[in-house]
Write a structure and sequence with these properties.
By secondary structure, the protein is an alpha+beta fold. It has six helices and three strands, in the order H-H-E-E-H-H-H-E-H. The radius of gyration is 19 Å and the shape is elongated.
């Protein structure tokens, strides 16, 4: 995603996946982060259509796996089925994290607005 202030990449994939991106944990959960170039406070406001395509396709794959567990168990056994499930879950987390980073839309947050919002709550 691109920073609206400096028009550069707001965050790298690794920074997005493995750090709080310059904000507190509670702010990070709410979608806030700081641009890695200009340190502007940003917030993820929406996602592009491809993110939802990623989301739906991974949900369909997981649902198919759950529906086919008895057949997969009889073919591969419990150990291999467990490994396949773990791989699918990690793949799903990766796809959703990548989709969030690549297809998220960020907007600049006015610091006065966030401080008054936090004071009123």
């Amino acid at each position: 995603m691109t920073c609206p202030s400096c028009n550069q990449t707001a965050s790298s994939f690794l920074r997005s996946a493995f750090s709080l991106q310059g904000v507190s944990f509670s702010k990070s959960i709410q979608g806030y982060f700081k641009c890695q170039n200009c340190a502007t406070l940003l917030r993820v406001t929406s996602f592009g259509k491809l993110f939802w395509l990623f989301f739906v396709s991974t949900a369909i794959v997981l649902a198919l796996f759950v529906l086919l567990v008895p057949r997969i168990l009889s073919i591969f056994g419990a150990g291999a089925t467990e490994v396949i499930w773990i791989i699918l879950v990690f793949f799903t987390v990766f796809v959703l994290q990548f989709g969030t980073w690549k297809f998220g839309h960020a907007e600049r947050v006015d610091t006065d607005t966030t401080s008054t919002t936090n004071a009123s709550t």
